[in-house]
């Protein structure tokens, strides 16, 4: 596969206002694709804004639903792959913070966030332990780690063992934990020999504040691009060959069996 451009979109979501947020999403997706991006990652809860307010259920849709339909239409029209995480209302009425991979052919994979941060368990039903969003796409095999989940090496390691070459991180990472965000985005890339494309929310959004610093990291752990502050996009060219190069140079995955670590089912 030849090198291709990827983009991480950084926005300040408006809590409980899908109309304003999806307008931002469409704007940035179109601009990213217009600049050549074949993979676009959006922040966590990009359509509803990241909030845990009681009104979240009222603005959350089903899956498929209005947000996934919009992303599918954009992916098909612009010939790109889009990754995010959205609040999904299940048939029983509960909410699931759901990772979503969309290609020009439609929804390729979904999987609910398993490791819920702070008060999220009061709002969301966690995914089951074996649940994950991972799929073959036109740009390679992509896996999703949603925000806090990316702090667990086990989550991204399982994605890598299941063939992920790119790990997308849709996030609403808090401003107080910028140090953790900077460290984990590089560490997850290095230890798995994967590209990381991490899209974060930025600034004040209701009662919360997010650290921005959306970033793209290569499989050697080198940061290729970062958007520290403000709304916008960060873009970089991903080299598919760098995955094998990194896994050969530091063969963590090859030698993992020496530790008798349980393999994914």
From TrEMBL:
Residues 4-245 form the CN hydrolase domain. Signal peptide: none annotated. Belongs to the carbon-nitrogen hydrolase superfamily. NIT1/NIT2 family. Pfam families: CN_hydrolase (PF00795). SUPFAM superfamilies: Carbon-nitrogen hydrolase. This is Amidohydrolase. PROSITE patterns: CN_HYDROLASE. InterPro entries: C-N_Hydrolase, C-N_Hydrolase_sf.
